[in-house]
Design brief:
Length: 321
């Protein structure tokens, strides 16, 4: 099968590209390298079934050429990471909204199946200690709080994808990704696990933003790739939205302590106010853990690697490099 993968030089995209090649597919990656890197896909470029195109999903003519030639699309290209989104507000919104519209429209024209990678950000700042179901209501902050623009743009993309399915019959599957982690993930855009690990291995202060009581879940990249490919292959998944993540939760303060312990670090754990880390208008959410019963009912259990095992794998990667 000929597969087009947007954002394929990014962290998740590079692992997905490699897995699809291992399955015997022909993979074309389009990436503008705004947050992706050629280093992520360097080991793939000698494969005759792999092609890298440095380009932008906003370039409709470029996208038309490659959508026409492919059999299906994995659309991962998007702004990535809280820090990057806050530093590139307008560009992030345009990429997420206009870029996704181009992908979906061309997929409809040429009758191509699409996987669209959404984000747990769409749940906004819902309170409580309840795992999120795909049907839950969402609460987004005010327009002057920049981070909610990203959540709104990904939510709009979901509405657009589902509308293309319902109105035009486009075979599209939406996956809401929850904090995917693993080797090669950059700490540059606000990703917490690689940032903590790099600080711990250098015995530098591990900087926890806020009070550290905020609760998250983390899923290993190999498990995420299995889930993405599996749900893409299910006909009953078309037109549906699925959480893709782990149910294992942890506070960010405890995450910092775990990483310090597992890396045998002498780092101090320091708490940094959000206003100092980002800006005075920054808002965060207390709890973000998925209910994954919907996707497991279709593809079975997929989240297998436990958090401490993930952390050890990533620590070993950094030590080896």
């Amino acid at each position: 099968m000929r597969i087009l993968l947007t954002g394929g030089a990014g962290f998740i995209g590079s692992y997905l590209s490699e897995s699809l090649l291992n399955d015997g597919h022909i993979v074309t990656v389009i990436d503008n390298l705004s947050t992706g890197s050629r280093d992520n896909i360097a080991q793939l470029e000698n494969n005759e079934r792999f092609k890298f195109v440095e380009g932008d999903i906003l370039d409709r003519e470029l996208m038309l050429k490659f959508v026409r030639e492919c059999d299906c699309i994995y659309h991962l290209a998007a702004a990535v990471g809280v820090k990057y989104v806050l530093d590139n507000q307008l560009g992030s919104l345009i990429t997420n909204v206009r870029g996704t519209e181009i992908v979906l429209d061309l997929a409809h024209v040429f009758k191509k199946k699409v996987f669209f990678a959404s984000s747990s950000e769409v749940y906004g700042k819902n309170g409580g200690l309840k795992s999120f179901k795909e049907t839950d209501d969402r609460i987004l902050g005010a327009v002057n709080i920049s981070r909610w623009g990203y959540a709104f743009s990904k939510g709009f993309d979901e509405f657009l994808a589902v509308a293309y399915h319902r109105s035009r019959g486009l075979p599209v599957v939406v996956g809401r990704l929850f904090n995917i982690c693993g080797p090669k993930q950059s700490a540059s855009y606000g990703m917490v696990i690689p940032r903590f690990i790099q600080q711990a291995l250098k015995n530098e202060p591990i900087t926890v933003y806020g009070d550290g009581k905020q609760v998250r879940s983390f899923m290993y990249i190999s498990d995420a790739v299995v889930a993405i490919k599996a749900i893409m292959d299910k006909k009953e998944a078309q037109g549906e939205v699925f959480n893709i993540g782990s149910c294992q939760s942890i506070s960010i303060a405890d995450l910092a302590l775990n990483i310090k312990t597992l890396s045998n670090s002498s780092s101090q754990i320091c708490f940094v106010p959000y206003a100092e880390a980002y800006d005075n208008n920054f808002e965060d959410m207390f709890y973000r853990v998925p209910d994954i019963s919907k996707i497991e009912n279709i593809i079975g259990q997929f989240s297998k690697l436990k958090l401490d095992e993930m952390i050890k794998e990533i620590i070993n990667h950094y030590r080896g490099n």
